[in-house]
Protein 1
Amino acid sequence: MTATDSVDVLVHRALLYGHEDEFLDATIPFLREGLARGGRPVVISERTGLVRRCLGRGAGTVEFVDASGWFGAPARTLTAYLAHARERWWPQGPLYLVAEPVWRARTRPEIREWGRLESLLNVAFAETRTNLLCAYDVRSLPAEAAEDVGRTHPELVGVTGSRQSALFTDPAVFYAERNRVPLAPPTEPVLSRDLAGGDPAGLRAFVAAAAEHHGLSRERSLALVQSVGEVVAHITRCGGGHGSVWVWSAHGRLICDVVDAGTALDDRYLGYFPPTPHRPAGAGMWAVRQLCDLVEIRSGAGGSVVRLHMGHESR
């Protein structure tokens, strides 16, 4: 029995290619296998037109998803994967998914976070009817993202077939490593406010004014205000709430740090997976990851920093 014969075994492979023919040589047989096995083939890529032409009549039973609209903020993409799989894909059969992220205009923090997302897919789709083939065009792939591929995918696909990745890293270990990457210091003047005194109305007014100062729309400003409030509430529940909030601009985005020197957060996948009735803890931080374009958390014995990235438009 192969991995794809099993009903509840995740198969997560990475395809590194340098030409369209290499992309098609891997993806077309993969999708046809899904069709032959009564699965649900899905393609999320900017090469959907090419795939349609090669599949011919079989393309009518394959779902094609716009990649530019799908691959926005990493945490929102993970939520979309889970929602679509549960509501649309798995009910129709084993999922055969070709996914090719879009790398244009990604900042270094975003690229690091996409590596974390790929690693977390091994947790999110564990013991599910999922065959996932992640495609990477080496001609446009950022170097840092290329370094992550073998560590986040259990199997690699090449011209000679599929093989186990010798570099694959347990998602919990990979996640912890990402959390030790230092955050870049502010590069522009910082607006700051102390959290001491427990003045939520004053904090909301400060964040709203800072967002307006940096040109955020009303919708984005409200999202940031709500996010900061949720982060402060979470830190306070963990025993802190006596730090500060820093706001500045970088790479065309507003950056907001919530700093608490006295609190270490339990950041084991904090806020990445949607809350359930049986696991409501972390619902606030999950909402923060949906509202913001990127959330970075660094926590340890010296305290915690939760960094929120908010662009002028939602990604």
Protein 2
Amino acid sequence: MKKIGLSLVAVLIIISGCKQQSDKEILEELLHNTVKVYQLMRTDNGFYRDYISTEESTDRGSTASIGMGLVAQCVAVEMGWNDDAEEEIIETLQSVLGENDQGVELARTAENCFIHFYDIATGEAIGSDWSPIDTDILISGALFAKRYFHQNEVIGQYVDQLFNMVNHDLFIGDWKKGQIALVMDEDGAARGSYTLPYNEYMIVAWLAKNKAKKADAPANLLWEAYYGNPEVLPVAQYTSKSGEVFNVMTDHKNNNEFTSNFTFMFNYLFVHEFTVSPIYQEAMRQAALADYAWWNDRDDLNEIGKRSYEWGTTAGVGLQQNGDGWKEGYTVDRICGREDIDTDRDRNRGLNVAISALAGYSPVLPDLVRKDLLSVYKDPRGIGKMALPAKDGISAGNDTILWKYSYRDIDWRPTKVEGVDYCAMLLGLAALPELLGVEFFQEYNNFFSPAMPDYRR
């Protein structure tokens, strides 16, 4: 009996050691690994690379990656994963502003619009893409960090300096048309190309509106005419095979073409009025349901093994056509009408499945997103899984994230993760009710409210 008892104890120990992860533990691990993506992008001077890669290292930084990285720092602290975040954020802001002893400064125009890509060792410009949207993603991430670390006066002073130095008036074109500048010249003036609502440039409109001092300023008039009145924004309609009609906000007013779905995630992250608005939340839900239907209407893919939980369409690395074949490259994938599949109007010819986009819809469809994320994670084919590269103190090289794959080549796995595009996963996982919940983002993207409750745990 004694030997049997010892055997049972041993068995119980073994069973305990092999205990399967709960669903919550899986989701928390995926969020932790997502935060690690941004720590892997971060350099010793506080800048952030454009991407991380399993095959190469890049010296190219991304201004937008800085903004997303600052949000990731706040998530990491809230989850209890980083005790050094405040010091690291200060270092990042000092490098952006050129106020440290490392001799680096992020390149900007005469009116303080920052460059899109830069050299991570110096901050010098790569190319001439002086970008309002990348500037304002950086600023929004900084404002998020200021509000989260509201008791840190140093962070607050640097963020205020950053926000106040940018001339947002120059980003607004003809407000009657809803124009926001795509690119600026180095002297500070708009280059002459503009975007129209609705898209991620809502972030620029939001910051410009809150910067404007006069009620009749173009930024205020643009906001009131368009983003403050979302019923006037153009929509593209997707009609599913079962006859359901989904109205998806877009900036393609004349040809009924869809926008890429990251626009909804970016705006949810940084535009407080979007985050708390029932109208915009419903618009985001419509976009998600259209994306879900587009993938599940594909009989050609269902016949070769695609499951209902495989969906999600957004920008980032993917397969793109290369002559008669397919190669890895940067794609801005979108859904299209069923009648446009495999035509020139098909904007996802690479059949790239973006699990990050699926996740990014959790603020409006948490139950569906949770179920489908877990199904992808547990899929025996290993679809969508990517192991992070090793780096001492961050990843041992076996941490898994969910990212992308393609039904043009189901065996293809991406070699890169772009910081700006992967943020949909950061938002989606963190916003799940069992992790941080939507309240986390509703509170900390409320940049222009003076009240700051002690929400932090």
